Amino acid sequence: LGLPVDDVDGNELGRVAGLIDNGGHDVLVVEEGExxxxxxxxDGMVEVVEGRVVxxxxxxxxxxxxxxxxx
Length: 71
Hints:
By secondary structure, this protein is mostly beta strands. Helix content is 7%, strand content 52%. The chain contains 1 helix and 7 strands; from the N terminus they run E-E-E-E-E-E-H-E. It has a 7-stranded mixed β-sheet.
């Protein structure tokens, strides 16, 4: 928890707020200011590199899962 999250271009997107087990795979919860978004924690989409989490989500995924924190 708390690790910085970047996209593959090096843009900082937020920090790890949690991990959800949905039964099929884990889902990474990322805090971004007053909002959060979720990304499936699967090979090819999430990688931990030198104390940072690097994500490569498909276009539109972050926007589709963004919500106010705690909701």
